[in-house]
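New here. Invent one.

***
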Amino acid sequence: MNYFITGATGFLGSYLVEELITKDRNENQENSIKIIALKRTNSKIPTKLQSYPTSVLEWVEGDLLDVVFL
């Protein structure tokens, strides 16, 4: 299953990402989840989310207000 999450560098968003990955790992032996997380250029990736491989969690820099980006 694929997810696109905005706000993943924030408090609630980072917990949402972590919960989705943990739930998927508990239900399946293989990673069947792919999360693409949007972050602003000046945002920092939370420490607890830095260890996940790009096959599970991919970071994309951009801004929701940028119509060309979307």
About this structure: The chain has one helix and three strands. The longest helix spans residues 11-27. The chain has a mean pLDDT of 89. Residues 20 and 33 are 8 Å apart (CA to CA).
